[in-house]
Amino acid sequence: RGRFLGSVASSPCALPRAVRMAQDDTSSSARHPGCLFGRCLRPVMTSGAEESHMGGPISQPLFSVSIQGEQFKFSCAHFVAHPGFRERLHGHNYTVAAKLQGQLNADGYVMDFGDVKFALRKLCKDLKEYMLVPMLSDVIDVRVEQELGQLHMFCKEDGATFQLPLADCKLLPVAHSTAEELAQYLHGLLLAEIGQEKLIQRNVRWMEITVSERPIQGASFAKGIDGTSSPVRSAL
Predict the structure, then answer these.
(1) Rounded distance, CA 76 to CA 94, Å?
(2) Among the four 21, 110, 120, 136, which has the fewest Cβ within 10 Å?
(3) Residues 95, 219: contact at Cβ < 8 Å?
């Protein structure tokens, strides 16, 4: 690398015939600019950092750490409603998993497992044994009576009415209490609980939260720590 093939750096046109490209089959972008006849192969050159197959410099290696298990769970009641549909009130034993991607730090960690587990346990405890109420729903009217400690829900799709103790309800800034929207909601909470500044200092680039209703089904939300929506990929 850094030289023409063979020993012909000073005379591009002197390349052996076997390594020349036929003039009719060679585009101008593949020719060496110093070749008078336009038949020489472009030299293989490198300068500075290596380049990836995407054309940019190869980034530092990235590592992923995952936290998951039955200890990160919460049990809640809910129902999903949208125009033309309302499911029956039911519940799930939800589990939450987290994955973080970033660079290795001097201590050999991307992130201390203990920090992530502590934050996940706190989030699950805050949701445990509540009725999930989607406050941004376009088909459920929610009325809170603070003095009486009551919450009223009216679903415009089928006329169903619910009256519940306010203390038993968790009011969420979501439109639907689906696994997808819960994953997005918990992503923001986990980011705040660990601290964005700390994650950036630890060179964490991206985080994904998965909320599962059952072992066979769940939904994930991933976002970069800096606000980007796509996970970081290492150039291999």
Answers:
(1) 8
(2) 136
(3) no
